[in-house]
Amino acid sequence: MGDDHTCESSTTCHQTDLAMLDVMIPVLSPAGVQEVLDFSILGWALSRYAGLWVGLKCLKDTVEVVQVVDGDPHRLTIVEPADYAMPSEGVSIRLGDTPQRQEARMHEVKRHAALAFARANGLDRRTHGQPGAKIGIVAAGKSWLDVAHALELLGIDEAECDRMGLTVWKVGMVWPLEGRALADWAVGLDLIVVVEEKRPVIEAQLKEALFNIPDRPRVIGGYDAAGAILFKETMALDRFPIDFTDEQYRRELFSRMR
Q1: What is the rounded distance in angstroms from the CA atom of residue 255 to the CA atom of residue 149?
Q2: Could you give the CA distance from residue 156 to residue 168 in angstroms, rounded to a whole number?
Q3: ∠ CA(29), CA(120), CA(36), 5° rounding?
Q4: Which residues of 6-16 are buried (b: 16+ CB within 10 A; e: fewer)?
């Protein structure tokens, strides 16, 4: 999935996440060259386990860069989910298969298998802050790099995250979004800010995943609580429009931090 959000070498400004969603293809969103390699291996393993095509979102910001990486193909340990019971007949196409059975298998088996794989292999994880925080930021891939860089520019290190009550959740598989680990991370939060570039993919899934939990946090993403734009859907985001120094970000974030 070679996405060109800013139309630098294409005929349109485009993203493919939603096209992958429409055809039920899980989407992995790497942040940097190391994760391009790691997520490629994890994507193959996910595909074999769940019987699905798997998309790898590639942007110039994560592939047209130079980075020192660990190229050992055996550096990753692939974990088979222990909390999911795979049907004895498996997930693959079989003799006498019908479109109706394939559709049922996609929704009732394969998607849940993909979520179990993501959970078992830690595709989504906490990268900043500790449990007990009050403000959470959720981002994936290049947008997570932007968030991490913005925090660095502001001098917000791990100790400062703890002092401010700030935590960050990095999503590795943007669709389908794994909700169990996310809900555990969200316990105690007052506000979650979802940082996404172009049209949102994570925000609606996150709201659905947290809707029924007790004392669920408020969630904002592309728009703030007053309906003003926080993160535009055109062109690209970078660390400067999400450095949280603008008044609308201070209103939503810093006023809530302890």
Answers
A1: 22
A2: 12
A3: 25
A4: beeeeeeeebb
pTM of the model: 0.87
Q: How far apart are CA 122 and CA 105, in angstroms?
A: 24
Radius of gyration of the chain from Cα atoms? 19
HEC-encoded secondary structure of 150-186: HHHHCCCCHHHHHHHCEEEEEECEEECCCHHHHHHHH
3, 53, 82, 251 from 233: Cα distances, Å: 14, 27, 39, 21
pLDDT tens for residues 57-98? 988 777 778 888 998 878 899 999 999 999 999 999 889 999
Is 29 within 8 Å of 61 (Cβ atoms)?
A: no
Under the banding of pLDDT at 50, 70 and 90, the label for residue 130 is very high
Question: Which CATH number fits the domain that encloses residue 218?
Answer: 3.40.50.920
Apex CA 154: angle with CA 33 and CA 161, to 5°? 85
8 A C-beta contact, residue 60 and residue 10: no
CB neighbourhood size of 119 (10 A) = 21
107/135 Cα distance (integer angstroms): 33
Asked whether residue 104 falls in the same domain as residue 183, the answer is no
Q: Which two tokens stand for residue 59?
A: 């942007």
Please indicate, yes or no, whether residues 182 and 105 belong to a single structural domain of this protein: no
- Spatial CA neighbour of 124 closest among 136, 140, 108: 140
